[in-house]
Amino acid sequence: MADFWQQVVAGLASGSIYASLALALVLIHRATGVINFAQGEMATFSTYIAWALTTNHGWSYWPAFAVTLLASFAGGVAIHQGIIRPNEKGSVLRVVIVTIGLLLALNGLVTLIWSGEVRAMQSPFPTRTIDIAGVAISIQDIGTIGVVLATVVVLWALFQYTKVGLAMRAAAVNPAEARLVGVRVTWMLSLGWGLAAVLGAISGMLAAPSLFLDPNLMAALLIYAFAAAVLGGIDSPIGAVVGGLTLGVGLNLIGSYVDFVGADLRLPAALAVILVVLLVKPSGIFGKSEVKRV
Amino acid sequence: MRHSRALAPIAAFVGLAVIVAVLPSFVSAFRAQQLAYVGIYLTALIGLNILTGYTGQISLGHGAFMAIGGYTTAILMTEHGVKDLWTIPVAAVVTGVVGFLFGIPALRLSGLYLALATFAIAVSMPAVIKRFEGFTGGGGGLNLFGLPELTASLEPVTVLGHELTFNDWLYYLCWTVALVGYVIAWLMLRGRTGRALRAVRDSESAAQSSGVSLRSYKTLAFGVSAAYAGVAGSLFAIATTFVNPDTFPIALSILLLVGVVVGGLGSLVGLIAGAVFIQFLPIWSQQVSKSPGAPAVVSGVVLIALMFVLPMGVAGLAARLRTLTKR
């Protein structure tokens, strides 16, 4: 039984990383109706900034963490203003192709600047374990879960209690009417992209210490984030978090107790989740189903 | 009026066919092989455009259909000793049926949800292929090189009195298939079926209320589109003389969508430019700079720039030029 709980906690830790990346996808989808295929590469890029600051420039972890978040935010806003917004007119595929181009360019840029070598990333939390009711839990896992939950609470407070948050929600739900009451819609959408970049950076910096840093780190995680977002409902921030944690725990348990799946079929298992959810309940657990107006 | 409207495309097509026929005499064998891949991509792009450009269903998973076609060919050739040419129609039927069946659950999905679902299938394809080792050869793949079933790989063949090397033979095979596919698509899309598909794309509710059955036309589009991808995959296996799970990576699916958008959604002529683009973009990017990572940056930047300059693809540019000259 102790083994079971250990798997659950490890699942929660990886699930919280999926959750933060899924939350980034949801933010962008709510704001601009686009699925950002470059979300993973944006996160990888941010993580490399943190790695370069701590390893090459000798910064200590938390200042590097803060500067990385600021840089990511600026980067996210710049990407929306510079290349997404001008391509929003016409077919939705146009923006999809732009994010695919961004994916390629950022992935290449990471390799170009920092080389494709696998790097070890410092963790702010010790890896030693503490014993809770017979279950050995690593402090790193607890720290990861804690950071993600704290981020979620901060975001929720931002959207629920601040004027900017209200304006962002208005811009996402009804851009035309929001504009009429004086909301600067495009800047609110840019803000959404900035926040999504920050979330991606957080999930990248949390994932890198245990998974090691290489240019394709987050591309693999992006699939799990897609699955998490779809599971929770691609329009629901709460859904992204619940979906991420459920997926993390579920995949960890299936991977360790179902022999047929094992480690090889973990990814297809996550994709099977996407397919099943899309077919049974396309709006996900928390999403609202779309109503078509004729 | 009706005559002249059909005449222009026919004239253009004949011109294209002539260029395709004589081109190998002017280029090296290596170049002919590269151009053979353009023909393969063209076939796949025509299929994808029927689904995405004409019916409005985004697929990020056509690489998976190509994988099914490629493996059908490889398994038939290695296990059952079937001549390569005969595996192509089989691949078309097998993938067409799979695509048709996939189209049934896909009816419930629209827009980006469908994109995600097809993306999921394409991503999981390599792992699934590796898992069913006994059937697919697992990670090691299936090798076709040197098999007697593979035409012209060991010694030149004579076709219509001309002796053809493997590369030239491949070129003519791929382009013949692509041009036949082009004509079939053109015939299918210009009549009643094409109108119905476009109606589904432009407004599902309006199409339905005018008596277009969403169910039959969407699944039809999926089946036909997948059959084209299957043929392309089959040709791909013949051309590379080898398949393994990484022959059909997720990048291939993405590249195909890029090709359709660059060529122009809902246009057949533009697809030739799209096929050239996806075959030569990686090669051109390599020439710009060889340092690791640089080619990807170039490809990405070119792609983004293209969406700024040609939002409607090459076909959109052509249409704009036409209206300019008419004035």
Features:
heterodimer; A: 294 residues; mainly alpha; two-stranded antiparallel ribbon; 3% strand; B: 327 residues
Notes on the protein architecture:
The complex is a heterodimer of chains A (294) and B (327). With 294 residues, chain A is mostly helical. The N and C termini of chain A lie far apart (55 Å). Helices cover 73% and strands 3% of the residues of chain A. Chain B has 327 residues and is mainly α. Chain B is built from 14 helices and four strands. Chain B has a two-stranded antiparallel ribbon with strand order 1-4. In chain B, strands 2-3 form a two-stranded antiparallel ribbon. At the A-B interface, helix 4, helix 9 and helix 11 of A face helix 5, helix 11 and helix 13 of B.
Secondary structure elements and their pairing?
The complex is a heterodimer of chains A (294) and B (327).
Chain A: H1 2-32, H2 39-56, H3 61-84, H4 92-114, E1 129-132, E2 135-138, H5 139-161, H6 163-173, H7 175-180, H8 185-211, H9 217-232, H10 237-257, H11 266-280
Helix pairs in contact in A: 1-5, 1-8, 1-9, 1-10, 2-3, 2-4, 2-8, 2-9, 3-8, 5-6, 5-8, 6-8, 9-10, 9-11
Chain B: H1 2-22, H2 29-54, H3 62-80, H4 84-106, H5 111-131, H6 133-136, E1 142-143, E2 157-159, E3 162-164, H7 166-190, H8 192-202, H9 204-209, H10 214-240, E4 242-243, H11 250-263, H12 270-288, H13 294-309, H14 313-326
Helix pairs in contact in B: 2-7, 2-10, 2-11, 2-12, 3-4, 3-5, 3-10, 4-10, 7-10, 8-10, 11-12, 12-13, 12-14
